[in-house]
Amino acid sequence: xxxxxxxxxxxxxxxxxxxxxxIIPKDTTLPIPISVLYSPLNPxxxxxxxxxxxxxxxxxxxxxxxxxxxxxxxTCILCNTINNGVIPTSTTVDYILNKVVPxxxxxxxxxxxxxxxxxxxxLVEGVRSTLESLPLYSKVGLILFxxxxxxxxxxxxxxxxYLFSGKKEYLKEDLQNIICGGSVSKEVGGNLGNLNCFxxxxxxxxxxxxxxxxxxxxxxxxxxxxxxxxxSLAVSLLSFCxxxxxxxxxxxxxxxxxxxxxCLASLSLSDxxxxxxxxxxxxxDYYKKGIEYYNKLGHRMVGIGVSLDxxxxxxxxxxxxxxxxxxxxxxxxxxxx
Length: 337
Prior knowledge:
It is found in: Cytoplasm; Cytoplasmic vesicle, COPII-coated vesicle membrane; Endoplasmic reticulum membrane; Golgi apparatus membrane. This protein has helices at residues 2-12, 117-133, 172-180, 227-239, 276-280, 287-304, 320-330, and strands at 14-16, 36-38, 46-47, 68-70, 73-75, 82-84, 94-95, 105-111, 139-145, 148-153, 160-165, 247-253, 306-312, 334-336.
């Protein structure tokens, strides 16, 4: 039995807490919860065609491990239609699609307020690793933030940067007026005309663009970090780009927002960042406004079909409690290191 389970894990790339459910009395809680660990990079069989769909035009369900297989034919579990087709040997397979794959769009929102050169080098290495893991056919935009916000243009060999204040939330209309003079031309398929210059392929993204915030941090103060304003700019940029196109914002941060909309901590280090007890007792000054602002950004992302991931490499509280609405609403993830 153990060898069979190990072979299944190796073949399918999954590990279950229960491979066979025990018989227990009604209203009894399992001592170990039901869960599954999936390895997306596990080698799996490659099927050189589209997924197998049920021949019933009304049903069109996909072949799955719950279908009955008899003599190289499978029976749909929803409508009992008998279908012909090549039967995969594993419950986890990779299909080679004949469809034209749309370009994935990513906007990297990178915190320039690194504490020292060592942490800055780690940040650059993290961004480089992220770019290497992105699909080759994806397009990537870059936004840096600290005291101000920098939006990079990649249309020519000379680096061109648009500088934005970190004091305000940026809506779609604001970006349209500032960069495009009030008009945006669109190409067929929803891709940007004169805003497509803000995206490039992952391999062309230069790491020397990522510099530390040039503004000095005063003694006894935190870094001036306009995280909320930078995220709103990324959402506004993607609002012109996405039209049935997968898009994601990836936030790299190393500290709490201390400036602009979505501020979660004061600049003075003498003022401690809110604790869990402060939240429970209603003494967290920035908590309610922070949740309200980041939830509003989450709704904006949902409206255009964009998700957000947060990568936080720091021991400090970066405000995940207030920001988690953005990841929860959009299906993003939070990684803390």
